[in-house]
Amino acid sequence: MKALTFPKSHRLLRPGDYGKVFDDVQLKVPHRNFLVLATPNSLGHARVGLIFSKKNLKLAVQRNRIKRQVRESFRQQVDLPGLDVVVLGRQGLANLENAAVQECLNDLWRRLKKKHRQLQPSRSDPSEPAG
């Protein structure tokens, strides 16, 4: 059985890590309830940071529930490219059931991977036609 861990190496821990993402956003995946910002890193694996404000999720219970959902969803994404990812919460998250949150997150991860693939060929493959 695979170890079900979420090590510190897969988390954005310092303010500088978050600042790097905010200063150099290369991938942006909007959703009605979330906003995902990402920038490539040189680590070879993805790292995630979470920002959920009291303005959007009033109760600590609500914020913690959503954070647990995001962390679990991120942990299950084994094929994410080497990105530093910041997930921000928006209004209306408190009203969603857990299944709806998981569905939103799975869609966000899928769209993030797709945008990353679209970004890569333009950098590395000069024979790819533009447009």
UniProtKB/TrEMBL annotation:
InterPro entries: Ribosomal_Su5_D2-typ_SF, Ribsml_uS5_D2-typ_fold_subgr, RNase_P, RNase_P_CS. One of its GO terms (cellular component) is ribonuclease P complex. PROSITE patterns: RIBONUCLEASE_P. It comes from the Bacteria. The keyword Transcription does not apply. It catalyses: Endonucleolytic cleavage of RNA, removing 5'-extranucleotides from tRNA precursor. Its EC number is 3.1.26.5. GO terms for biological process: tRNA 5'-leader removal. Keywords: Endonuclease, Hydrolase, Nuclease, RNA-binding, tRNA processing. Pfam families: Ribonuclease_P. Gene3D superfamilies: 3.30.230.10. One of its GO terms (molecular function) is 3'-tRNA processing endoribonuclease activity. Consists of a catalytic RNA component (M1 or rnpB) and a protein subunit. Belongs to the RnpA family. RNaseP catalyzes the removal of the 5'-leader sequence from pre-tRNA to produce the mature 5'-terminus. It can also cleave other RNA substrates such as 4.5S RNA. The protein component plays an auxiliary but essential role in vivo by binding to the 5'-leader sequence and broadening the substrate specificity of the ribozyme. HAMAP family: RNase_P. This is Ribonuclease P protein component. The lineage of its organism: Bacteria, Pseudomonadati, Pseudomonadota, Gammaproteobacteria, Pseudomonadales.
